[in-house]
Amino acid sequence: MDGRNALSFxxxxxxxxxxxxxxxxxIAYNIDAxxxxxxxxxxxxxxxxxxxxxxxxxxHVLDFVVNxxxxxxxxxxxxxxx
Length: 82
Known about the structure:
Blueprint: H1 3-15, E1 18-23, H2 25-28, H3 31-44, E2 55-60, E3 64-66, E4 72-74
Parallel strand pairs: 1-2
Antiparallel strand pairs: 3-4
């Protein structure tokens, strides 16, 4: 790739909207589940055939929520941990 094409590619990459997807370990370590997540999120964004126009970034769920009773949940209110 010559210098002009490399620069053009880099500009396109920088212009792609970043999509952050938070996932639990159960999904992160299951390739079939990850493929399903990518396909479903791409579909929500308007193209279930590919995600080349977006910069998908995955992060493990590290968020905790505490309800009024003091119960602690990981990744929202569906998984109580304490």
